[in-house]
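Hi everyone, sorry if this is the wrong subforum. Our group has a chain we'd like a structural model of before ordering constructs, and none of us has done structure prediction before. Sequence below.
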Amino acid sequence: MTSFIILKLSTIIIFLLTLPLAAFLTQSFFKSKVKSYLYWSIGMWFFSLSVFIEILFAFGAYSGFLGNSYMLFVALIVEFLALGSINMVKRLLIRKTYYIFCVISTIFLIYVIIISPNIPIVNNARIAFTVTSLLVSIASSIITFPAAAILVIVAALSYKRTRNVKMLSIIAGVIVVSIAGGLYIEAIPAFLYYSEFIGIVLLWLGFFNFDKVKRIVR
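Answer:
Right subforum, don't worry. Here is the predicted structure as tokens:
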């Protein structure tokens, strides 16, 4: 029972941490009109939606629709974060190629999720997940692996150019968030919440300018 209460609290805390970061990135887009912030914010809103579904799972709401939605959102989180990073690349051909790849791979994943059966399961720790087909795992990986690679490469190049340590936090956060999604899809949900919490904290440290807030407060 204690572990179940901790599970509920952890999902709520992660949700409360994710919402303001998504709102902050959205506000940054409207202020700067930089497309990267738009895509990053959409990715974080999908993160918020996925964690909200986890809350529903934790409180006993299980359905095939929620499982399908969750699998889609997990892939879209990494995809939109990568779209934000690819917009930092100057070559238009590279950006357009990735846009086309995202459209095709996302349509394929949606199709595969629709045609593939999934069975909601609650394990002994009362963590909900769904048994997915190999095709769903492959379709999701087609999106997440290239997206994670783009995020890491762009952030690493940006760090090399600027020596901004926040980029290292973003790299680590993205890797952890990507691993979290993989743990769910591969039916290893027990470590999902730990990974998500660590990932969202690292993304906070990477995206948010705490020094600016301190100056404003002073």
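For your construct planning: The longest strand covers residues 119-122. Residues 2-32 form the longest helix (31 residues).
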